[in-house]
């Protein structure tokens, strides 16, 4: 039993902390999910239409974020897309910069930095991401749910419609709703495809016959089907049962994390309004109107304390504030607050855990910045031709290499390849042609490196090769050189 529940129980019942699970229905919610009944059947949620200050702010944030999402594929930086994640051709463009699979280390550092940022953000501000920025919640609550309210009406009307036998009106409303859902799913899937294939290829796939772009067509149908199913049927289950971030809340949130919370000290003992629309002196401010539960898109009662299902959408804050205004009590019975701030009356965000995460985050941002600033536009690899060791020529030892040059820029590059050390090493390109790497392309070449036999004292040594563009060094590559194994008598000679 956690402390919050005990506090609620104590304030509700006046009993000590020792309660059996039967003492209160606050115990039941830990052992069940609000969207599944005792027999394991899905309970469909019909949340009441939200309204209020927070909801208006969410509309603003949604318009901004979805605007960026839908406009993104058309935004160009230096003629290149803002974001392109072409996993099929292993071509990635972020903020107009091309990234290759060779930038894997950079990607790994970026991902680690992102995860640490999310952890730090969650430790301090709870699950704000879920309610205000997560695409799943934005589309579900601010797009699909709004269409549902528009066509089927508010909570009660939706319930009535669901229970009503099939009639022309029911078919019309359900048909219209699902047609609109399908249309938006098509729009989302095409936008997503534009981030993967690029706008031009997506347009080509859309305008050509399906047989000409089978993969693109199958992809779009697949994405559309997944989005339609997700928003029309699966809904809040994605947050409750699937989302890994949601499952991590138990370990990320602490008593000082700011979350959507019910002020149980002020609200309990709850009770209905008595005469003249007011509470009795021994009563808390919660009038048990249940509005905070009715608006909740995940079907929970936030008065039971912080729960895994809560996506911090703030609908319950708006609903409760409206009630408090009506009964002339201060707003904020449900508000953004930490457990400790409600219990002790002091909001303290900074603690040891936050300090530790902040240090790690600053360090990672530093490493990432350094890696980005020192990232070269050309990536070269020299690998020994497989199956070869070394060849002997009079007075020389020779190694044969396959070289690969990747051009990460959007222009052709003309490269010069020179030995940097040791000074006596010689490097030859087998075909003798200049190294011209096409824009966003890659070429392969074959090279010989030769060392004087008397200088090869180890079976393995290193030759440094410099890659130059317009006389400026862009990269330095370490190349392994293999020579004969020296015996003791060789060394004496
Ligand atoms: S909306 Fe406010 S007053 Fe009504 S039940 Fe919820 S917490 Fe209590
Ligand atoms: S408890 Fe409140 S903030 Fe959490 S999901 Fe429900 S309505 Fe949204």
Range of helix content: 40-55%
The kinds of small molecule bound in this structure are: iron/sulfur cluster
Task: Please give the largest β-sheet.
Answer: 5 strands, antiparallel
Rg to the nearest angstrom?
32 Å
pLDDT averaged over residues: 86
Indicate the structural class.
alpha+beta
Poorly predicted runs:
4-24
List the quaternary state of the chains. single chain
Discrete helix count: 18
Care to count the β-strands? 16
N-to-C CA distance: 81 Å
What is the overall silhouette? elongated
Question: Beta-strand percentage?
Answer: 15-25%
Task: Give a structural overview.
The protein is built from 18 helices and 16 strands. It has helices at residues 3-13, 53-71, 104-125, 128-132, 135-152, 155-163, 168-197, 199-207, 214-234, 237-242, 244-247, 249-252, 264-267, 291-294, 315-326, 339-344, 352-373, 488-492; strands at residues 76-77, 80-81, 83-86, 91-94, 97-99, 259-262, 334-337, 378-384, 391-393, 396-407, 413-421, 426-429, 435-437, 442-452, 460-469, 472-482. A hairpin with a 2-residue loop joins β15 and β16. α5 (135-152) packs antiparallel against α7 (168-197), α7 crosses α8 and α7 packs across α9. 23% of the residues are buried. One iron/sulfur cluster binds next to α15.
């Amino acid at each position: 039993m956690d402390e919050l529940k005990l506090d609620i129980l104590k304030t509700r019942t006046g009993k000590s902390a020792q309660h059996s699970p039967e003492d209160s229905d606050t115990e039941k919610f830990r052992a069940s999910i609000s969207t599944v009944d005792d027999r394991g059947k899905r309970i469909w949620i019909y949340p009441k239409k939200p309204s209020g200050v927070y909801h208006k702010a969410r509309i603003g944030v949604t318009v901004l974020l979805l605007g960026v999402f839908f406009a993104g594929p058309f935004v160009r930086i230096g003629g290149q897309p803002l974001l392109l994640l072409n996993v099929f051709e292993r071509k990635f463009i972020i903020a107009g910069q091309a990234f290759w699979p060779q930038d894997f280390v950079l990607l790994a550092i970026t991902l680690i930095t992102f995860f640490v940022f999310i952890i730090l953000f969650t430790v301090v501000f709870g699950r704000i991401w879920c309610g205000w920025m997560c695409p799943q919640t934005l589309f579900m609550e601010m797009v699909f749910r709004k269409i549902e309210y528009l066509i089927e009406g508010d909570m009660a009307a939706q319930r009535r419609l669901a229970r009503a036998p099939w009639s022309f009106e029911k078919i019309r409303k359900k048909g219209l709703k699902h047609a609109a859902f399908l249309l938006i799913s098509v729009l989302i899937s095409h936008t997503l495809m534009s981030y993967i294939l690029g706008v031009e290829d997506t347009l080509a796939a859309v305008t050509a016959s399906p047989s000409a772009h089978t993969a693109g067509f199958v992809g779009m149908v697949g994405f559309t089907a997944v989005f339609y199913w997700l928003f029309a049927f699966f809904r809040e289950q994605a947050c409750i049962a699937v989302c890994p971030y949601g499952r991590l809340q138990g370990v990320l949130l602490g008593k000082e994390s700011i979350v959507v919370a019910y002020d149980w000290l002020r609200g309990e003992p709850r009770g209905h309004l008595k005469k003249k629309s007011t509470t009795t002196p021994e009563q808390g401010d919660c009038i048990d109107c249940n509005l905070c539960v009715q608006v909740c898109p995940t079907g929970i009662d936030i008065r039971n304390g912080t729960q895994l299902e809560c996506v911090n959408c703030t609908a319950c804050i708006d609903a409760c504030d409206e009630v408090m205004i009506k009964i002339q009590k201060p707003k904020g019975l449900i508000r953004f607050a930490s457990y400790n701030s409600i219990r002790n009356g002091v909001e303290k965000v900074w603690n040891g855990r936050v300090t530790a995460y902040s240090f790690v985050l600053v360090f990672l941002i530093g490493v990432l910045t350094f890696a980005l600033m020192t990232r070269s536009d050309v990536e070269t690899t020299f690998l020994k031709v497989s199956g070869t060791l070394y060849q002997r020529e009079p007075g020389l030892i020779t190694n044969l290499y396959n070289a690969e040059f990747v051009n990460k820029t959007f222009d052709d590059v003309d490269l010069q390849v020179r030995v940097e050390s040791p000074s006596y090493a010689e490097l030859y390109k087998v075909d003798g042609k200049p190294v011209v790497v096409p824009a966003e392309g890659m070429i392969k070449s074959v090279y010989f490196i030769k060392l004087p036999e008397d200088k090869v004292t180890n079976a393995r040594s290193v030759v440094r090769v410099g890659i130059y563009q317009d006389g400026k060094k862009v990269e330095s590559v370490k190349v392994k050189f293999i020579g004969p194994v020296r015996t003791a008598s060789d060394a004496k000679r």
